[in-house]
Every structure is written in C-alpha cells, then in structure tokens.
Amino acid sequence: MTCRDFIDAAEALTPLESGLVETRNEQLSAHARECTGCGKWMESQRLLGNALQVLRARTAQREAGPKVEQAVLQAFRRQGFEPVAAVAPERAAPAAWKLSRFFELSAYAAVAAALIVGIFLGARMWRDQQAPQTQIQARETLVPQPANPQAAMLSYNGKPSERVPTEVAQKLVNSAKTKGAISSGERRQTANRQSGATTAERQGFVALMFCDPLICSGEEQVIRMELPGSASASAEDNGSQPVIADVVIGDDGLVRAMRIVNQ
Amino acid sequence: MLTEQTDEQLLAQALDGNEDAFTALYRRRQGPVYRFALHMSGSPQVAEEVTQDVFMFLLQRGRGFDPSRGAVGAYLFGVARNYVRRAMEKSHSEAMMTTPAEDDDPSLVTNCDPVDGIARGQTSKAVWKAVLSLPEHYREAVVLCDLQELSYADAAEALGCAIGTIRSRLHRGHEMLVRKLQSSAPALAGFSSDAARCLS
C-alpha cells in the first residue's frame, strides 16, 4: 500500500472512526506502523477525533430553552401551518432546493427557446430553398433569355458589341440567372425596356452605351434636343446649322441612344 | 406512539392540525438544530434565536415541503444554516465567533476526576475556538459530520452540495484544525493524555 492509497482509504473514515482503524483494516494499520509520516498523520487524526468527541459530549445535552418551545407552540396554536397559496419566495430555504427549482425552470425555458428558434430557422431555410427556384422560373417566363449569350450583348441596332468579350457576356447572363431575386417592378421595367429597344432599333436609334438589363433598369424617355452643329462630324458647313436629335435617356440620367432627325 | 413515527409522518400529521405531532417533531429536532447553530456561532443566544426562527419558518412554509427532495432533518439544517449565516453577518456576531460560550455543565465529567474535568474543559474550549475560526464552508462540514454525526449523504443534502464536496471540505477542515490545535499544543497535549483515557 502506498502513502496515497493510505490517505485515500483513511479519508473515507471520519476522525471518530479512524481511531478504530487498527481493528478495521490491518493493511492501514500495518502501513501506519511502517511509514513514519503516515503514522503521524494517523495519530493527529486520532487526536482530532478525540478532541471533537469531547466537544460533542460537552454540548450533547444543550437544547433550546422552554421559552422557545412556548413561542413556537403558541404560534402553531394561533395560526397553524400557513396555506401554500400564501407562501412567499423562500428566502431561507436550503440553497439546494432553490437551485434545483431554478434549474428546473431554466431547463423548461431553454427547451422552449430552442424549439422556437429551431422552428424559425427551419421555416426560414425552407423559404430560402423554395424562393430562388420560383423566382428564376418566373423570371425565365417573363423575360425570355437569348439562346446565344452573345445576344445579350446586342446593341440597339442589333449588332453585337465588339468591345465586350463573349466571356463577359456569358458571365453577365449567368449572374442574371443566379441572382434571381428580381422584383415585379423591375421585371416590368425590364420588359418595357426590351420592347422599347426593339422600337428604338426599328426607328434608327444608335446605342451609345452597353446596357445590361439588370444594370439599366428603370424608365426611359425620348427627348428631342437641338444640338450645336459642331456635334455632327459630317456637317459640311462646319457647324453653322443646329442638329436636331432624339435622345433616349434613362432614369439614371445617362443617355442610352440617339438619332439625328434633320440630317 | 408518536415517538416511533418518522419525521415525515409527524410533519404530515402536524399539517393536518395535530398539535401533539408538531410538539413531538419539535422536541425531536430542536436539539440538533440548536446545537448546530451553537457550534456554528459559538453563541447560545444566537442558537436560541435560530432555533425559533427555523420552526417559525417551518410553520410558514411547511406545506411546501416535498419529501422527495430530502428528509425533514436535512431540510431543517439547511434552513438553520441560512439563519446562522444571517446572524453571522451582523457585526456583533463576528465578536461572538472568536469566543465560544462557556460550558459549565458538570454532569459531563462525573466519571473522571476534577483534574481530568479541567483538562477536558480546556481542550473542548480550544477545539471549539479552532472550529469557530474555520472558514464557513469547512466549519459547516465539520459541525455537521463530526459534531452532529450526520452521514456524508445527509450533510450533502443539508448543504446542497455533492458528497465528494463534503468529503473534501471535511478533509481540508481537519487539516486546518490539526494545525490550529498544534499551535495551541498545551491544551491538545493535555487532552491526549488525560481525556482520551477518560473517554476510553
């Protein structure tokens, strides 16, 4: 038996019992005889046990006085036990009871909160999973996508833009598909612009900028403007005659297209 | 008849208005509660107040007692512990703690000669003083397990902690007590030779 085993085994005994260790456990007593340190420890525990026993014996007959008994019994006769309904929060109740009640209520609250959060998150995830599919489907039905990605790059006069590479156009089409979330107002405006573009193409407008459907959303207006003659590079009289032009302006203030009227 | 019944049975009858049952329960439990408060505070006055408060508390909250949560005895010790703690928080109680009450009951030393009695008195006073100087957690464990002779399980129930906690607090409390008593060697040495013989 090691000293650690000895201490562990002896600790299981109260000091009063440790005085009886020699008769209870031969191993313990043998180790206490062989090991000086453990022997001293055991002796100190025995002395402590005896000292505590003396204190206990000297106070064993001490009790509350008759006045206390009288007061308590009078209170019992006067009011008895108070009903449960009148019980206020237990300030002097044992801590273990208060704690167990606290943990019980906390556990109920935690389970309820977890259920609420779980339901909320589940509903939100389900909605998020459902929404993109329906929106993409709706968008595909409302705004027909060109079979060829290059079609997205068509300018108002129906010619592909030479400055924008095909890969970029493909990317723009893909992002338009994956983003998906287009409001109904935007869909309507995009559709209007598509129809406006075909009208513009028919009427001879020249596109001045590349306009992706997602970027150039919003209403457009056609405004007839009088420009100085120098605006026309082909003016033979070197800008003496003003140039009348119809300009397509988006609601962002940028010019989409224009046509010369009086040339 | 009533003396053979358990605390829980007496309490149940007392709750139905049986005064004899309540009196029997009081007389059975007031002594341990009083001695616990006395050992913890060192003051008979505080011990009496705590005993009265504990049973008044039982009258007020006795209907809320749940036997499935523990025994009546452990419940009363738990309540007493809180009242003792309140009493200790008062400034005048701190002064009481350092000086245990004199115990002049001569009936305890009738089997020994007067010299032994004096030695026992000195020893018990020194031990009590050492107990009172322990930190509260260790003092509670020592008082309940060593002086009230509660089992580790009952003490754990009264203090609202695990049995392992009681064991470790008790072990630590014993180490501190041994050191304190060794520093007051004359009293302990006198006890070890004389009073141990008297007790054997």
Strand-helix topology:
The complex is a heterodimer of chains A (263) and B (200).
Chain A: H1 3-11, H2 15-18, H3 21-24, H4 26-34, H5 36-59, H6 66-79, H7 95-142, H8 166-179, H9 184-202, E1 206-207, E2 220-227, E3 243-250, E4 255-260
Helix pairs in contact in A: 4-5
Chain B: H1 7-15, H2 19-41, H3 44-61, H4 72-89, H5 91-98, H6 114-132, H7 136-147, H8 152-159, H9 163-183, H10 185-199
Helix pairs in contact in B: 1-2, 2-3, 2-4, 3-4, 4-8, 6-10, 7-9, 8-9
Note the main attributes of this structure:
A: 263 residues, four-stranded antiparallel beta sheet, 4 strands, elongated, B: 200 residues, mainly alpha
Descriptive overview:
The complex is a heterodimer of chains A (263) and B (200). Chain A is α+β, with helices and mostly antiparallel strands and 263 residues long. Chain A has nine helices and four strands. In chain A, helix 4 crosses helix 5. The radius of gyration of chain A is 47 Å and the shape is elongated. Chain A starts with a helix and ends with a strand. The model of chain A is unreliable at 142-192 and 194-198 (pLDDT under 50). In chain B, 76% of the residues lie in helices and 0% in strands. Chain B is built from ten helices and no strands. In chain B, helix 3 packs across helix 4 and helix 8 (152-159) packs across helix 9. At the A-B interface, helix 5, helix 6 and helix 7 of A face helix 2, helix 3, helix 4, helix 6 and helix 7 of B.
Rg calc of chain B: 18 Å
The geometry of chain A reads as: elongated
Q: Mind telling me the C-alpha Rg of chain A?
A: 47 Å
Report on the biggest sheet of chain A. Answer: 4 strands, antiparallel
Q: Specify the number of helices of chain A.
A: 9
The helix content of chain A is 55-70%
Q: How would you state the average pLDDT of chain B, rounded?
A: 79
- Termini separation of chain A (Å)? 116 Å
- What is the tally of beta strands of chain B? 0
Q: Average pLDDT across residues of chain A?
A: 69
Shape by Cα distribution of chain B: globular
Order of helices and strands of chain B: HHHHHHHHHH
| Total count of helical runs of at least 4 residues of chain B | 10
Helices and strands of chain A, in order, run as HHHHHHHHHEEEE
Instruction: List how many beta strands of chain A DSSP finds.
Output: 4
Percent helix among the residues of chain B? over 70%
Interface with most residues: A-B, 52 and 76 residues
* Weakly predicted, low-confidence segments of chain B: 103-113, 189-200
Outline the biggest β-sheet of chain B.
none
